[in-house]
Amino acid sequence: MPTNTHEDTSVTFNGWASTGTAELKEWSYHPRPLGPNDIEIEISHCGICGSDIHTITSGWGELTHGPCIVGHEIVGKVTAKGNKSIHQINDLVGIGAMVDACGECSDCKEGFDQLCKSRAFTYNDVFRDGRGGNTYGGYADRVRVNSDYAFKIPAEISAAE
What is an example of a Pfam family matching this protein (predicted)? Predict the structure, then answer.
């Protein structure tokens, strides 16, 4: 049986996922392989937002990409990085509602990457960069994202803040 090239089977991430009801269940997955611009974050904190509730209860429609780990207000430390990442190991970073975009289209170049046809939201979405894989949010122990969508948090600010 061939290995799914969209998964890094050497690691397993664990989180709390919805299958379209408000009841979250423990769920594990293999993230996509770490790319040159990617970082892996050990999550220490994640906020809760109304959009998380609308997503897990299917209030905005059915989940489109299997079990969904919500959470787009993520804070954690970088534990692994691709060779082109803008962050360093142990940097404290925050993640918002997007985790990837092409960076090359006119929308991206004009600062409107949220309109990019290749953008990927933090959860209940897919990466469109040709490497494949689903996106999963912060109600988990770790996450992998494009480092351009992680924002370094100054040392003077605690992760909890």
Answer: ADH_N
In the chain, DSSP assigns E strands to 13-17, 25-29, 38-46, 74-81, 92-95, 98-100, 120-121, 125-126, 134-135, 142-146, 150-152
Residue type at position 78: V
List pLDDT tens digits, range 134-158. 999 999 999 999 999 999 999 999 9
């006119």: which residue's tokens? 106
Residue whose token pair is 């370094």: 152
What does pTM read for this prediction?
0.92
Provide the residue type at 146 as one letter. Answer: N
Token pair 């994640």 is at which residue? 46
